[in-house]
Design goal:
The protein is mainly beta. It has one domain. 8% of the residues lie in helices and 23% in strands. It is built from one helix and eight strands. A three-stranded antiparallel beta sheet has the order 1-2-3, with no helix packed on it. A three-stranded antiparallel beta sheet has the order 4-5-6, covered by helices on one side. A hairpin with a 5-residue loop joins strand 1 and strand 2.
Length: 130
């Protein structure tokens, strides 16, 4: 069997690394998660309405950036825990001026990460520039 000269690595955070002759090739390192989010959109499925469980049992929460690209946040702990990322980081409402109701705080450092909020709205289209 011949020795392989190329290598691709998939990471639990949604990223990809590609090597050729042991050198990293940045132009071939498009995120596997981003590719799938784009694929779902082309199939007529809104990726923002899909729950994504990652191989390490964390959850990816997709959102659209102001440029219209896909991004995502990953829960801090395994899905079974309440220690998830702060939703406000990917919400188009502005905390605390959004005056949230029925907020659930996580158990992470500082106990201030909001993991559930009835007013949460992920970026679903680019924000207008002012």
């Amino acid at each position: 069997m011949s020795e392989k000269k190329m290598k691709c690595m998939f990471f639990c955070n949604g990223n990809t690394m590609f090597f050729k002759n042991e050198n990293q090739v940045p132009k071939l390192q498009k995120s596997w998660l981003k590719l799938y989010l784009e694929f779902l959109e082309k199939q007529g499925i809104n990726p923002l309405e899909v729950e994504f469980d990652l191989p390490d049992r964390k959850e990816a929460i997709p959102f659209k950036t102001t440029s219209g690209d896909y991004g995502w946040e990953i829960t801090v702990e395994n899905i079974e825990t309440e220690n998830k990322v702060h939703l406000c980081n990917s919400c188009k409402n502005k905390y605390p001026s959004c005056n949230p109701k029925n907020v659930i705080f996580g158990t992470g450092v500082g106990l201030d990460n909001i993991i559930a909020c009835e007013k949460y709205k992920a970026y679903s289209k680019p924000k207008e520039q002012k």
